[in-house]
């Protein structure tokens, strides 16, 4: 169906498609009819509609010249201006103006305890001096009452309550204060509570201090989990009373390692060992005992020394099986061999305290160092590392941190444990009928701990007695229960007080303050 002008009559649904080209009057009829069939008539534009026209490049009359539209021209000029300013800044650098901003809004940006590494990492002995400084930095005038230093020695033990009905009873903690010394380094005295407060000027204040230890033997620094603990700590305290709440500050606590001076009580000699270890009543080898002969040289020994041992261990008949004394016939042959002999340096801790008004005491043993011996000069038995007579000689190295002491709640001693295993001479493959048992004995070790630079080797070979308690001009320190405590004083190892004024142009101070504010 068509109109009089030859245009096809399209349905209303298809009239929404815009007609861009009209059928040409020239050309073959087939193309004209095809174009007429494909192109719908154009639709009129409504008065309220606006056609979208994208930004286009303007072309100048000159060939090859492209001009941007006004909007893009403004953007290009802005980018060019920024690039020109950047190039000028790179070519002619100017000095940066000083930063006048406040580095932080906090008043106290630094409050710490400065103790030299050589003091913290070194063990202190009676008569030594601990030195350090308290450093405080403020950004504005700050009122404070005082800056004080605290040096605390505390002993703590854990005891099991024998009357507890719990399946796994919790240990009871018992504390003992060895000493607590306080000193005001700046501001009011430690005992005063009123009066006007002092003002800290903006800047860094460094106050040196020194702690003189008395010539008494305080317990050694030690920490054993859920057993005992002896600790010496020092820290500083800044008191700033406020209107509604206090603004007190405390530095981190620095732990000071301390050891007493334990002098030898007798000259060095050989410790003879002649003992028979009897079996347990329910042991598989009930009729067999172990005879230990030999000794240890260079006792009493210093921590870290080498101790020479010479031991001979063999299996003998038990005195209980024969009804006679083992010393009368100790060398009766038996069909048992000694296996796996070990020497162990043992730390023995005896802790005691009051629980519900009753004295309770408990012992703990900890292996510090062990050496496995090998049979020497004897034909080995059927089993590996076994012999009818186990004889060995060698050196036992003592740990360097051995330090015996005696206090009110803790006693720390050392022992040498001789441990061996005895087995019968049955075949190695016959493990069902072979009988084995472990035998153990303890020998007390006399160990000393003294500074190497303050005690001569000649004094170590002399013995102390009640008449002569002074060897090489040295006397042993008194017990820590004596009426002597550490003394704290200001200065003593550098200038009495140093102060660095606050300066905004100081980059080190600004970096410190901003780091504190960021944290």
From TrEMBL:
Residue ranges annotated for the Arrestin-like N-terminal domain, each copy included: 124-247
Gene3D superfamilies, sorted: 2.60.40.640
Feature: compositional bias, Low complexity: 24-37
UniProt-listed Pfam families: Arrestin_N
GO biological process entries: protein transport
One Gene Ontology term, aspect cellular component: cytoplasm
InterPro entries referenced in this protein's UniProt entry, alphabetically: Arrestin-like_C (IPR014752), Arrestin-like_N (IPR011021), Arrestin_domain-protein (IPR050357), Ig_E-set (IPR014756)
Protein name listed in UniProt: Arrestin-like N-terminal domain-containing protein
Species assigned in the record: Coemansia thaxteri
High-level lineage: Eukaryota, Fungi, Fungi incertae sedis, Zoopagomycota, Kickxellomycotina
């Amino acid at each position: 169906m068509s109109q009089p002008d030859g245009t096809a009559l399209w349905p209303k649904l298809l009239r929404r498609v815009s007609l861009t080209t009209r059928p040409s009057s020239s050309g073959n009829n087939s193309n004209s009819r095809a174009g007429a069939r494909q192109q719908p008539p154009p639709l009129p534009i409504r008065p309220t509609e606006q056609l979208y026209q994208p930004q286009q490049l303007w072309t100048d009359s000159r060939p090859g010249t492209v001009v941007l539209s006004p909007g893009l021209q403004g953007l290009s000029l802005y980018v060019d201006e920024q690039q020109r300013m950047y190039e000028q800044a790179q070519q002619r650098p100017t000095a940066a103006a000083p930063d006048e901003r406040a580095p932080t809004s906090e008043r106290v940006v630094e409050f710490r305890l400065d103790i030299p590494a050589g003091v913290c990492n070194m063990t202190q002995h009676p008569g030594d001096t601990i030195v350090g400084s308290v450093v405080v930095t403020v950004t504005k005038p700050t009122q404070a009452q005082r800056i004080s230093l605290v040096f605390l020695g505390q002993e703590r033990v854990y005891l099991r309550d024998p009357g507890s009905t719990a399946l796994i009873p919790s240990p009871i903690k018992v504390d003992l204060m060895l000493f607590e010394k306080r000193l005001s380094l700046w501001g009011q005295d430690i005992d005063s509570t009123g009066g006007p407060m002092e003002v800290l000027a903006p800047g860094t204040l460094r106050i040196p201090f020194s702690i003189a230890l008395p010539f008494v033997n305080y317990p050694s620094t030690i920490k054993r989990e859920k057993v005992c603990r002896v600790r010496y700590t020092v820290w500083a305290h800044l008191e700033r009373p406020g209107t509604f709440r206090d603004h007190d500050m405390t530095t981190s606590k620095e732990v000071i390692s301390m050891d007493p001076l334990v002098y030898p009580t007798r000259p060095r000699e050989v410790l003879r060992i002649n003992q028979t270890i009897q079996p347990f009543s329910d042991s598989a080898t009930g009729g067999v005992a172990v005879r230990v002969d030999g000794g240890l040289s260079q006792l009493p020994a210093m921590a870290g020394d080498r101790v020479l041992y010479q031991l001979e261990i063999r299996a003998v008949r038990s005195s209980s099986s024969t009804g006679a004394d083992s010393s009368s016939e100790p060398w009766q042959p038996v069909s048992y061999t000694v296996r796996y002999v070990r020497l162990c340096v043992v730390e023995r801790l005896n802790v005691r305290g009051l629980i519900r008004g009753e004295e309770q005491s408990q012992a703990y043993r900890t292996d510090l160092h062990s050496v496995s011996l090998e049979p020497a000069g004897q034909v080995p038995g059927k089993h590996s590392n076994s012999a009818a007579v186990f004889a060995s000689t060698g050196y036992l190295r003592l740990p360097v941190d051995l330090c015996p002491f005696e206090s009110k709640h803790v006693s720390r001693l050392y022992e040498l444990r001789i441990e061996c295993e005895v087995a019968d001479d049955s075949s190695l493959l016959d493990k069902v009928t072979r009988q084995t048992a472990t035998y153990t004995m303890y020998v007390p070790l006399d160990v000393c701990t003294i500074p190497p630079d303050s005690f001569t080797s000649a004094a170590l070979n002399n013995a102390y007695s009640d008449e002569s308690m002074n060897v090489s001009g040295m006397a042993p320190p008194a017990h820590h229960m004596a009426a002597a405590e550490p003394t704290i004083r200001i200065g003593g190892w550098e200038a009495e007080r140093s102060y660095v004024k606050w300066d905004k142009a100081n980059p080190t101070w600004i970096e410190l303050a901003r780091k504190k504010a960021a944290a």
